[in-house]
Write a structure and sequence with these properties.
Length: 335
């Protein structure tokens, strides 16, 4: 607190026997151009631990600067650890807030308030780049942080959280969120390549050098932020818009073009309401359901296509080579 300047026009001090009560109806704390205005009380009564209560509002300030100003005893270890490990940055404005400090054996600290965040950044998962340009509202108390109408960016993708709740336990930080966004298909593909959880799924597939298009999504997920691998998608909705991916180094794979459609999912199955696009020059359509339950027989996919002779020569070279001339197209329905 030595870095701060505190001014107050008046204060009331009551001394009665062994009781000590200080009331500051209005004060201002300044640190260079930054100020916090509020009220404070301090009570030290017999047979009770002393209690310091401070409430007020403050001008915008960077998270790093504020963490240096706040007394270390007022900043829980879990919060200080999260600020460092998650590379949390940005500028916050305290709209309203209060701190009640009881310097007893457990050093009880009760906090609550509401802040506005701008130009924020947070590293949610070490396998992926940070979320940047974060802005929105945050409500908090000693054990819980709730994000409201928060928006951010990951490369060319935009995410929007209608509501997210983080509960700070020891040592776990649990997360539940509902959100939506507009994702770049290339951002999603690069994320799958980086994430060790998706390596086994991608291993049979070639490396795609060109990925374009957009994915609109809404989702609801829940799990541990301390262990991101435990995050579970409870449900979601995907709209694919003009997806294109191509492996330019492997002529045995046809490029996918103009892929659009609607997909929903939950913990039990993926439902493809309709996907349309082209493999090479051949139009295809896919719909149905794929079960995610172990040993389930509930999967049912239907694909309709009209395959050009050129694309069939790529997919089935040994079959096509049996003919001296192979032209035209073949319609197929697979279930």
């Amino acid at each position: 607190l030595a870095l701060l300047t505190m001014t107050t026009p008046e204060a009331t001090l009551n001394l009665e026997k062994e009781a000590f009560n200080l009331s500051v109806p209005t004060f201002q704390i300044s640190e260079q151009a930054w100020t916090l205005k509020g009220t404070a009380t301090f009570a030290d009564n017999p047979h009770e631990p002393p209690i310091l209560t401070v409430s007020g509002s403050a001008l915008p300030i960077s998270i790093q600067r504020l963490s240096r100003i706040i007394p270390e005893v007022w900043l829980p270890l879990s919060v200080r650890t999260a600020l460092t490990e998650r590379d949390i940055a940005g500028e916050i404005e305290l709209l309203t807030g209060s701190v009640k400090w009881i310097p007893n054996e457990s050093n009880t600290l009760l906090t609550e308030g509401a802040i506005r965040l701008t130009n924020g950044q947070v590293q949610i998962d070490s396998n992926h780049p940070p979320v940047t340009h974060v802005s929105g509202g945050i409500a908090f108390n000693a054990d819980l942080v709730r994000l409201l109408d928060v928006q951010g960016q990951i490369h060319d993708s935009t995410v929007y959280l209608k509501e997210a709740t983080l509960e700070f336990g020891e040592p776990e930080i649990s997360l539940e969120l509902r959100g939506k966004g507009l994702l770049s298909a290339d951002d999603v593909y690069q994320a799958l390549l980086r994430d060790p959880r998706s390596q086994s799924t991608l291993q049979p597939w070639p490396r795609f050098h060109e990925v374009h298009g957009n994915i609109h999504f809404t989702t609801h997920l829940k799990g541990s932020l301390t262990h991101p691998s435990q995050l579970t998608f409870l449900q979601g909705d995907l709209l694919l818009d003009g997806i294109h991916f191509q492996n330019i180094s492997d002529s045995n794979w046809l490029p996918a073009r103009q892929v659009s459609g609607h997909i929903t999912f939950n913990r039990q199955h993926i439902h493809i309401h309709g996907l349309k696009g082209k493999l090479g020059q051949s139009p295809i359509a896919l719909k149905g359901q794929w079960s995610l339950r172990k040993n389930s027989k509930a999967s049912n996919l239907n694909m309709v296509g009209r395959w050009s002779s050129t694309d069939l020569a790529t997919l089935l070279p040994s079959f096509v080579q049996r003919f001296s001339i192979f032209e035209g197209s073949i319609g197929t329905t697979l279930t």
